[in-house]
Structure formats: structure tokens, C-alpha cells
Amino acid sequence: YKMVIAVANQKGGCAKTTTAVNLATALAEGDPRQRLPARKVLLVDLDPQGNCSTSFGVEKRHLKRTVNDLLMNDSGEEMNVIEDFLLPPEQLTTAMRRAWAAEYPDKKKVPDHIKVNNLWLLPSDIHLSGAEIELSTRIGRETRLKEALATIEEDFDYIIIDTPPSLGLLTINALAAARWVIVPVQAEFYALEGMSLLMNSIKLVQRRINPHLKLLGIVMTMVLAKSKLSISVCNEVNKHFSRQVFKTMIQRLVKIAEAPSEGAPTVILHSPNNKTSGRGSHQYWTLAKEVHQRVQII
Amino acid sequence: YKMVIAVANQKGGCAKTTTAVNLATALAEGDPRQRLPARKVLLVDLDPQGNCSTSFGVEKRHLKRTVNDLLMNDSGEEMNVIEDFLLPPEQLTTAMRRAWAAEYPDKKKVPDHIKVNNLWLLPSDIHLSGAEIELSTRIGRETRLKEALATIEEDFDYIIIDTPPSLGLLTINALAAARWVIVPVQAEFYALEGMSLLMNSIKLVQRRINPHLKLLGIVMTMVLAKSKLSISVCNEVNKHFSRQVFKTMIQRLVKIAEAPSEGAPTVILHSPNNKTSGRGSHQYWTLAKEVHQRVQII
Ligand SMILES: Nc1ncnc2c1ncn2[C@@H]1O[C@H](COP(=O)(O)OP(=O)(O)OP(=O)(O)O)[C@@H](O)[C@H]1O
Ligand SMILES: Nc1ncnc2c1ncn2[C@@H]1O[C@H](COP(=O)(O)OP(=O)(O)OP(=O)(O)O)[C@@H](O)[C@H]1O
Ligand SMILES: [Mg+2]
Ligand SMILES: [Mg+2]
Fold this sequence. Notes:
Two copies of one chain form a homodimer. By secondary structure, the first copy, chain A, is an alpha/beta fold. The first copy, chain A, has 14 helices and six strands. Chain A has helices at 16-29, 51-54, 67-71, 81-85, 89-103, 131-135, 144-150, 169-177, 189-193, 195-208, 228-241, 254-258, 266-269, 279-297; strands spanning 4-7, 41-45, 119-122, 158-162, 180-186, 214-221. In chain A, helix 1 crosses helix 14 and helix 7 packs parallel to helix 8 (169-177). One adenosine-5'-triphosphate sits between chains A (12-18, 47, 51, 165, 221-222, 250, 252-253, 256-257, 260) and B (11-13, 165, 188, 190).
């Protein structure tokens, strides 16, 4: 129960998936220079769009079973989640290397660093979009994910859950299963609007379903260092939530937006020490380190 | 029934609100030079985040009644929608001018062009986020918006509906009430993912609830003219949906992102002829013209 982290914000396009994918990958890989240990990580894709799978070049039509089957399981029998539902690191690595080769057909060899070691993925699929309505009348509709993850929790150091842009049953399931929640906030004007709605929902889940849930932090994303708008939104968020905002800010960078088309997270594609193409990678490695520290302290 | 347009895409942050707001405002204002007549327009905010209201500087805590009350109305009695629920152009203008003055405290006078003439707003509020689950067990859950709008349809030339980033009951209500649907697609990799899911949903609504519904067009948004990623996503969308993609593309421009903090749509804030700050305005005026032409022809 200790290390389940939901990444949530009902505002669309604020970098929930980008943050969940890069955070999970960096925490799995670890970085000895930063004293960030390698950890066994499970990434859960609870968004019907399945953008987490795309981030690793995974083709959704080849998936055997997805998180949808887990949530809808009414048979009462124990499922073998690790065997039947999770994509192991070897399978993710194969998908990444194939997607990278497709993006760079003229390159003879896929670089060795295009791989993951300690990361498993629980993929979603298109049918998950029906789950909200289908679950709404079932028993234990809010805690189905929590029950499903309870059987495998001991096998992982971190479980990171990507959520869809809404406060419906899928996100409630994620908040019910989580110990922590990370909220990405885009440094743009509309983003301020939804913060109070989200904080209300978190309080409601804490009171009614999951008293252990805590806000781990708020991460500012797509920040444009020199933009008046960005600066004023960051100031506004810091004013209302000062202690909870992570020191690490993620800037709006083309390399981060391009990573999904190359089939791998930016923390894998680019070395954090590369001054030109590695700035996004560096920022997400720094965020992973900050997350790891906060989880230890609290 | 002829001119109800839903703006929908379950991918978050692809500029649904920005497109709905600027399109509604341009169609309401009209532009004699472009032979675009002024029209009486209603903008419906069906997103619990209420970003449409923010776009006009409307403070949500002062709202008397919202779209939520309309959808949840089980009393069977006719409501006086125009009197009790809609914000008229004078009220939107007051809110815009107040928000603009707050953003520019050192300016003595608010410019005259900060106003709207023919635009009404049906606002949403935070309670709408509970509507998905509350509606799911009520009679006629999919056509409540259609019924509510039926009483006022004759009073407007266009009704534009902004939707939340999901394919749940709120968006289904919008598609059931609409004659046309406009799909904004961000020129980024993840955006391609959700297109088939959305097209399936539109087909399902056409078959089961609303046979009149047609795709009016796909508009590419946040396009970066020189970016490899943008170009390849635009090519991909054109390959699969060629005839349906609007000729007008909306570029990623800072002035468009800054408009909500000034309390007015970019088509009002900036003249389309202003070469430096008016490019976004010009692109949305051109899109309004293209929408007007398509609706006439089909
Ligand atoms: N720091 C960044 N710089 C540039 N582009 C970014 C950055 N972070 C994310 N993006 C891009 O912005 C878009 C939105 O990000 P993403 O899909 O991760 O957000 P999301 O919150 O998961 O969206 P949704 O609400 O649809 O789930 C994507 O195209 C992504 O590649
Ligand atoms: N062409 C553009 N150039 C720059 N920024 C833009 C552009 N269009 C929209 N934006 C900004 O991008 C963000 C997302 O846009 P918007 O909120 O309109 O999308 P949406 O699809 O309505 O999001 P949601 O899924 O949350 O409803 C906003 O901060 C907006 O100001
Ligand atoms: Mg996402
Ligand atoms: Mg919106």
C-alpha cells in the first residue's frame, strides 16, 4: 500500500501520461550517480486512449488481456495477474526497439540504450471507455482496481497509475487504490480553474473511501521560462499550494513531444547530460529523484 | 435542428474549448468584408471545468442557474431557459471588460472592441462532474440536452456545444442534440490514437440515437509549421480523413494561449489584420468562414 502513486488531473492535456511514463521509467532504471536506486515498477494505464502503451510502441491489437478485464471481473476467482495481464520488461523492450527502427528506417542498428529493465505495464484498451457506465451499477464499483492490485502489490516497489481526464469512476478507482497522488498542472490559464474541483474530489475520496490517500505533490508542466502567462500561473499555484509544489518544473520542449513517435520515453531516448536534446530527460530524472525523496520522508 | 454543432474529442487539451469559444464569437459577430453574416449564437458549456465561462471573464460563483439544472430537471414542467439560464451579450460584455481591466490595471480605459453583440452563453458549473453518474440511471439519460435545447432552438442561428474530454454521457448528450460535430485534433503523436475511438462513438450515436448527426470537419490545432512531428501528424490525418479536414489550420501561438487571462476570445482581442498579434485571430476568422460555407453546402 506504501508505494502506489496515482497521476491525476481532470484537465485534459496537462501531461499526466507523459509524467506517469517518464517517472515510472526513471524510478525503474535508477541512476547510481544521483543515488537513485533501481526499483521494480508497475505502470498501470487506466485511460481508454491507451497512450501509455503507445509510449512504448506497444500495438494494442496484439494485447491479450487488459485492465478492463480486471475491473469487470465478477467471477470471484483469483486471476493470475502477473502471468496473464502484465507486459514484462522484455516485451516492452522489443516493442520499443521495433517502434524506434520504424521511425528511423535508414539507421542500421537500434542503439543499445533503447530498453527497459525493471518496468512492467498493465495496458488498457478501447473497451475501457464503457467501464464508467458499466461499473456504475456494480457492487464495489469504486474499489475494483484496489482489489485487483492487492494480489500483486508485494511484487513491486512502485505502482504508478495514469488516469483519464475526468473525475469519474476510473479516476476514483485510481485514487481509492493509491497511497499518493501527483497532480501535473500545465502552466496555462485554464489549468487554474480545475484545481479546486480536483482537490475537492481528493478530499471526498480521503473521507469516504481511502483515508491513507495523500497529495505527494504538484508538478508544473509545459512551462515556458520567459512567458508572462507561464510565470503568472506558476506564481498563482505557488501562492495557494506552496509546500506541495515540486521544485522541479518541466519545460515545454519539442523533444518531450516527439518521444512518443519514437516509441520510448524521453528519459530513455536522451541522456540527461546532453545539453541540447537532454533537457527534458534531465528534468524528469530530477523529478524522479524528488519523488523518491518525498516518499521516504513522509 | 439544422445548426447545432458539437465540438468533441475525448483527447484532452486538443483545443475544444478554444475552438468552440472563438468559432461561436466569430459566427456571432460576422465580418462584412469576408461576406460572413452576423448570426445569433448560443454557446453551451457542457464541461464541468467551465472553461467557456472563464474565456469571457465570467465568475462562476455568481451564476444563478446552469446547464446542470437543465439536465437534471425531472419535474416535467417547462423551464424558461432564455430568462433563467442564459447569460445575454450585455452580461458577457460586462464580464469581459472587467476581466480585461483586471489584467491591465495601468490602462485608464478598456478598448471599445472588447464586447460581444449576438452571443449568449449557457454556463456549466462544478456540480456537472457528478452528472455522468447521476444521469446514468435516469430515463432518457442520453437525450436530456436535446430536449432542453428543443424549446429554444428557433431563437438561435447557431448553437455551439463545448464538451469535456471523455466519451461519457455528457458528450453523448451533446452528440445526440447536434446536427454536426467538429473534431479538433492536436498536431501531436498521441492525438492519432484516439481518432478511431471517437469515430466509432459518432457512428454508434448515428445508428442508435441521432441519425442526422454528421461530421462537419476535422480542424488541426496547435500546428508548428516547421516541426517534423506536426507535419507527420497532419499528413497522417489527411491520409485517413482527407475530404473532412478543414483547409484552415490553427497554429500554436502564444496570443491564443494568453487570451483566457485577458477575459476575451482571441478573435475579439486581436484584429485579424494585425500581422504580429493577430495571426491566431485571423486563423479562427478563416475557420468560421469555412464552417459557414460547409453548413450551407451540405
Ligand atoms: N513538457 C512538454 N513539452 C512539450 N510537449 C509536451 C510536454 N509534456 C507533454 N507534452 C505533449 O503534450 C500533449 C499532452 O500531454 P499528455 O498526453 O501527456 O497529457 P495528458 O494529461 O495525459 O492528456 P489526457 O488528458 O488526454 O490524458 C502530448 O502531445 C505530449 O506529447
Ligand atoms: N493554437 C493554440 N496555440 C497555443 N495554445 C493553445 C492553442 N489552442 C489552445 N491552446 C491552449 O492549450 C490549452 C488547451 O486548450 P483547451 O483548453 O482549449 O483544450 P480542450 O480540448 O478544451 O481541453 P480539455 O480537454 O481539458 O477540455 C489551453 O491552455 C489553451 O489556452
Ligand atoms: Mg493521458
Ligand atoms: Mg475544454
